[in-house]
Amino acid sequence: MALARTKLFSFYTASRHAWARGTSRTLSVSQLHHKSSTSVGVIGLGNMGGPMASNLLNKGHSIVVYDVNEEAVRKLEDEGASAASSPFEVASKVDRIITMLPNSQHVRSCYMGDKGVFQSVQPGTLILDSSTIDPTVSKEMAGLASKKGAVFMDAPVSGGVNAAKGGTLTFMVGGEEKEFEAAKVLLSAMGKNIVYCGQVGNGQAVKICNNMLLAITMIGTAETMNLGMRLGLEPKLMASIINTATGRCWASELYNPVPGVLDNVPSSNNYQGGFGTALMAKDLGLAQGAATSTQSPTPLGSLAHQIYRLMCNKGLAEKDFSSVFLLLQEDNK
Fold first, then answer.
1. Active site residue 207
2. Measuring CA to CA, which residue among 45, 90, 96, 95 is closest to residue 72?
3. Which residues are bridge partners to 41 per DSSP?
4. Contact, 87 vs 43, CB < 8 A?
5. What is the pLDDT of residues 307-329, one digit of tens each?
């Protein structure tokens, strides 16, 4: 048994080095990672990254974690994870890395900064970035990873905190198609739908388009519910009718912004948890940047961006994005 493990390790190590050298017998990262038994690195343990890391543990993976929030790291340690002191240390110990970070600046710092991933990343490492960032930054990171003999794929998510906890996220993956199988195997421990979207950056493109639509429909749902309530309609009744009629949407049916209509959503918990208003404003900014660069008219997307920026200035930045209902309620005062 020990001899078999030694041979397997030798095959894996030699194959990785051959892959990095680009020999004619090159194996893809997907092929290599069918042989890999090393830990998975997880960097970014917030509302989404923390539950994602927990699901990896629950599915039998050993993980090495890092976050600037020491409490978040300790929580994962209590669940069985190993802690690292920096992204550099994570990358030095693993050959698969998942990052879930707030914005493009944080991603650049994590990978390119002092004690960053690219200072110690091993050849053949598979990197999956689940942050929502500018697609051009994903392409930049992929180019830098390639110079290190690693593979970078963007894999942003949809589904929110409840899906992160339940392991039912949707991952939108951009990168080389031959590497998708390795990404799918790992992401399946945290998600239900793993979708290949094409080249690097396409996952981000799909994500920012989806979030623009989500923001628009959430504002529309909040406006509709607010109007109906002012007309004397009971909110649960109104929601039940909308959700069996043509106005039905995710925001009305599964994430209603009115407190008390649904249990276990942020609006019924003082808009705590979920997806923050500041993050939605950031994603809408990315969408507007993309619209400008492609000369695409997005009048409702632009208006939604302004509304969520206003919400941030009104003290709702840390509340869930469904708190747009509170902004509309101010007019009642």
1. yes
2. 45
3. 64, 97
4. yes
5. 999 999 999 999 999 999 999 98
